């Protein structure tokens, strides 16, 4: 048994909602007397939202709110329900589709340098890759890859993916090494969802292609370009693109999963370790709440992109869901009238959210070390708590939106 599989302890993880609640909710403690009233309300409401996630059956959650003057970390439940380890600010976690904002930012930097245009065709940069079965890369632009209007079918929503990486297939294939071409082929095996520019549908396949465009333009992998252009300049010392390494660095929670079985299951499994080449440019990143807050704040404050490219990124298209979508970034209009910008991400054993105000002065990043939350209200309440000081979204939301793995 390898060091990665030994974490399974030879059995299913016996976690239930009752155990999580019985384990106790750990509050963050009272606010300082010097804390402004608005921040006190935000922290109190966010803590209530975190407790609500554990009450809804999630194993544990940690969240950091960072403002221009202070930072606060709240937690509830457990990072490891067996050892009763708590969540901490040092936790590294798989942030899933938050990767997409880093990928889009890199392409927008390349545009600012005159090395490509958003309206370049996919065919120009990846000749012959998106052709056949109803696809024509000449008619699909880089912009459409980034805002999910390309019509390219999501590889996650295929029988091939479901068989290989969901349910029992996860344990057979989680250490397989996948190339971007392998992943794209799964998506392109299905007909387009619609003609390019004629609809909106979340496509992980499109972002794998976006990563391939970065490599074609620069001669370097998307991960190395992101590291050189974003991670190192911003001092994101805890952010990684692990490639084929199944391990997680430093302190990290157990990743509890129901493995996205096609039918609901009660059993919960340990999915902490797998090779993230399955996710690639659509969801590979490993980070911490602190690093994600620094990234999104810097992005909104114009420290990563020129104003013209940032405006392009924040130009949204309608999605028919409770968020708008720009170029690798989501916009949420909250109950208090504030709109925040960021992304969600879910991969096996991990569900994350990150957002910041338009001025970058208040940022939130949080991670749940479980992947099966079905009702979105407890998830959305974290945003409402952090930015509005309430836990009452204005409207019921039936789902968490796109499956961002």
TrEMBL record:
Pfam families: Beta-lactamase. Keywords: Signal. Residues 1-33 form the signal peptide. Residues 48-371 form the Beta-lactamase-related domain. This is Beta-lactamase family protein. It comes from Streptomyces triculaminicus.
